[in-house]
Amino acid sequence: MSSHRVRPLGPKEDVMSSLAVCNTTPRAPQLLATLAPSVGANQNQAQQQQTRKPAKLAALRAQIQRLEGHRTAAGAAVLPLGLAPIDAVLPEGGLSRAAVHEIAGADAGDGAGDGAATGFCAAIAGRLLAADAQARPVLWLSPGRDLYAPGLAACGLTPGRLLTAGGLKRKDLIWALETALRSGTLAGVVAEVAGLDLTSARRLQLAAEAGRTPALLLAPTPPVGPVAAVTRWVVSALRGTEGTRRVGAELAPPVGRARWHTRLVKCRGGRPGDWTVCWRADGWQVEAPDTATLPLWSGLAQPEAVAC
User: Fold this and answer.
1) Closest to 279 measured CA to CA, from 262, 297, 300
2) Strands 188-192 and 231-237
3) pLDDT band at residue 68, thresholds of 50, 70 and 90?
4) Mean pLDDT, rounded, for 115-132
5) 157-161 — which CB contacts under 8 Å span 24+ positions?
6) Is 14 helix (H, G, I), strand (E, B) or coil?
7) What is the percent of the chain where pLDDT is above 70?
8) Could you give phi then psi for residue 277, rounded to 5 degrees?
């Protein structure tokens, strides 16, 4: 007794067999009428799946960003820096206002890197004030009491909208920072703190998201270890371009407007970069680097050329 294997029909064969049955049956019109809607329904279902793909991809991207701690896609606003080459590499064209950002100096022991990082941080805080529609203040938390008010005012941090708290112990400073971020009553918070562990940094990120308030963590040197912040910047001072000046019998280095070598070493959702930024009385700008103008210390690599 022979056995025969029954091969399942493919989709096209199934349709053809149905048509063959219809041609040999008196009820052919009725069967064709029932077959046509099913074929049309399959086509409509395929079209609907195609149209849903972009929405599904966008939802997956937003979910990944939320898991990474970056909520810009979920509705948080961004702060454009007003520097086109830098804004172009930042996610959505600016710094997230619901995130933690680290700004560190590349210090060689003379304090120049620390001062450059402070100036760069103050310039960002000044832009936060200028862009805040509710005219809320910026809070600056510091373990010391050496903030120079005229220098901060030159960066846009006017005394009437700048709150300062100095002489804080590390534990109290971190507590004040988290509380201020969650309050949602400030345009931004600057905190002079370094070496946060991942747990503390994650708590600050959640606080920034809850209050939709950006945190600028200022450190004298780049922190060692994993980066929990959304962006990390390393800023160094560059020599001025106004020419040398004579002090007694010696020539002093060039002075003039502030110039910084700014490196974006980490950017979640964006791209790292390398720029020369100069500060003027009417704001800042990105300039093409002058190879004849060396950094203040030789350990710093020359910045890449960037068009203004």
Assistant:
1) 262
2) unpaired
3) low
4) 94
5) 157/122, 157/125, 157/126, 157/129, 158/129, 161/129, 161/135, 161/136, 161/137, 161/187
6) helix
7) 63
8) -120, 130
Q: Percent of the chain, pLDDT > 90?
A: 44
pLDDT at position 190 = 98
- According to DSSP, the residues that pair with 236 across neighbouring strands are 261
The tens digit of pLDDT for each residue in 162-171 reads: 999 999 999 9
Do the Cβ atoms of 121 and 307 come closer than 8 Å?
A: no
AA letter at 213: T
241: left (phi over 0), alpha (psi -120 to 50) or beta: alpha
Average pLDDT value over all residues in the chain: 77
Beta strand pairing status for 231-237 and 258-267? Answer: antiparallel
> What is the structure's pLDDT at 213?
96
Q: Residue 66: helix, strand or coil by DSSP?
A: helix
d(CA 256, CA 6): 89
Question: What's the rounded Cα separation, in Å, for the pair 139 and 185?
Answer: 10
Residue whose token pair is 């407007």: 257
**CA distance linking residue 219 with residue 216, whole number of Å:** 10
CA distance 244 to 277: 20
**pLDDT value for 63:** 63
* 215 CB neighbour count, 10 Å cutoff: 29
Return the structure tokens found at 255: 């002075």
Q: Which DSSP helix (H) or strand (E) runs through 276?
A: strand 273-280
Q: What is the pTM of this model?
A: 0.69
The distance between the two most distant Cα atoms of the chain, rounded to a whole number of Å, is: 118
Q: How many CA atoms lie within 13 A of 114 on its CB side?
A: 12
Is residue 251 pLDDT above 70, yes or no?
no
Q: Which two tokens stand for residue 159?
A: 């005394």
